[in-house]
Amino acid sequence: MRLLLHVDDRNGPPRLVHLAPGRSYVLGRGTSVADIHITEHHVSRRHCLLRCGDRSAWLCDLGSANGTRLDGAHLDPQGRLLVPDDVIHIAGNPVRLGAVVPLDPAWLAGNGGSVVQMALLIDEGHDYAALPILADALEDAGCDDADLLTHCRAGRAHTAGCWVIDLLLRRTSLEAEGERPEGKRLLAILSDVHGNLEALQAVLADIEQQGVHDIYCLGDTLGYGPNPRECLELIRRRCKVVLLGNLDQAVISDDGFGHAAQRGITWSRRELGREGGPLWTFLGERPRVHREPPFSFVHGTPRNPLNEFFFPEDIYNLPKCEHNFSLIEHCCFIGNSHVPGVFRERVPGREYDFLTPAQIPPGGQALASSKTLVNVGSVGQPRDGDPRACYVLLEGDTVFFRRIEYDIETTIRKIHDLPDLDEFLGDRLPEAR
């Protein structure tokens, strides 16, 4: 077992810190004196000290002005022993002690992937009372790790997550964050969930089995489907980057759409709860563009990140292609049209082509020196004749398309059972048109 820290810095991004046994770490605000830096101004320069063992850690407050809290109470001067999943609060910033053990992929693949599905359900419902059942499923799949099984069966309270769930859902590993054995980062990119919870859950379960480091969502989590709130909560929790889509924008701004789409927008707006609530705030803060040179990410197109569509037949619209490709450094990932594939610039301003996912070789599509647009397709409303959910993996400079079966009949039934949604939105799913 190795220990790690989940640091939720209110003024910075959440981060994962791997800890070394036998080492002490100062947590605080002073970059010159703290090993683990927290930017909140109420945090003392040297706030608390963590001494790490193999399976636990000793925490001492260093006389900080605001103190360190554990279980809702200030830490006493002598300090306290921490075990994995204990949560401390440093001037209101939660920090959770986590753990990681070697993960055998066979545990995830056993019994048809039931371990991953069970872990997802526990995570989404915060149903940690079901951890002993998960331990039984892990044993059935061949797991014999005593630390993992004992933790699941201990019956302890979990207030901010569980290290076993983090491990099984591949949020943590024995590798340092951001590294892969072959030196390449693996990124999952999805778009256009459109309130289809069954499709999203199936895609996330597949992503967890791929060893993905981060998930990016290109927008349109809402609209059309029966579970907009549940999907948005999942996307908010699971994705590192979430962009705004045109239907997301319509939900929070009351933009007009066609009849069927407008009914889905109205339903999504009602399901999100009161205006000004956390989901409304989250949507309102979503960017329209994300850049990690040489890659960029939008919902629509480079020249109109929110609303424009880019269809396969647009390779013959030379002015549209020339304008959009002129705005790309190397590759831009897009959604919106629900039609997956790869657009390539063969001769700038003169020749472009399009590859469907079926034309991509099994080893993936290498993003060559020419500029490329990659449409990642749709999780919840595919429109390329294939009803399976679609998303993309990016490893280094290679793109892989993933098509995932899901319980489409349940989604259709949910839509038909809701008078607020047009039945057409369910009827179109099997044909993916």
Any overview of this molecule?
- The strands form 4 sheets. A 6-stranded antiparallel β-sheet has the order 2-1-11-10-7-8.
- With 433 residues, it is an alpha+beta fold.
- Helix 2 packs antiparallel against helix 3.
- The protein has helices at residues 105-125, 131-140, 146-153, 163-168, 197-208, 228-238, 246-253, 259-271, 278-284, 318-326, 408-417, 424-427; strands at 2-7, 15-18, 24-28, 36-37, 48-52, 57-61, 68-70, 73-74, 80-82, 87-90, 93-100, 186-190, 214-217, 241-242, 289-292, 295-298, 331-334, 341-347, 351-355, 365-366, 372-375, 389-395, 398-404.
**Number of DSSP E strands:** 23
Span of the ends, CA to CA: 49 Å
Low-confidence stretches: 176-183
The share of residues in extended strands comes to 15-25%
CATH topology of the largest domain: Purple Acid Phosphatase, chain A, domain 2
Helix content: 25-40%
CATH superfamily of the largest domain: Metallo-dependent phosphatases
- How many helices? The count is 12
CATH class of the largest domain: Alpha Beta
| CATH architectural grouping of the largest domain | 4-Layer Sandwich
